[in-house]
Amino acid sequence: MLEQCYLGIDYGLSNIGISVGQSITKTAAALKTIHTNKRFNWQELDKIILQWQPAAIIVGNPLTEDGEEQLITRQTKNFTKKLKKRYKLPIHYVDERFSSLQAQEDFAMARKIGNSKRKNSKDLDAHAAKNILQRWLDLL
User: Phi, psi at residue 33, to the nearest 5°?
Assistant: First the structure.
């Protein structure tokens, strides 16, 4: 199997979590959180795309607990349209329900065993993106 890199995105209005993963080991890692301050910094994402050369972008689909769409679902789809137009890469959605909660629990556990510090909490969105991408990689 040819190794391919993938980018995971946890879209939010204030922060966008970015993760990276690859097909050989089927593992994802948190990369960074891009803070939007009302306007998204496309140049920052351009650098990440250039550096990692992903085969596709995996975006979390924020549904309600009942699996219904909500306002942020539509906002995510609008952002995804811009991604597709800008980077001309395949986009795949994955159910992101509870990915942020899982990231918070993972962070709390890492702090408890001494593997993370409070100052790293600003990267929770990147860890949520890691969980989103990991879910997708697990299906490969």
Answer: -115, 130
Supply the pTM of this predicted model.
Answer: 0.83
Domain that holds residue 129: 5-138
d(CA 67, CA 96): 10
The 10s digit of each residue's pLDDT in 80-106 is 999 999 999 999 999 887 655 565 565
75: domain CATH number?
3.30.420.140
Total domain count, the chain: 1
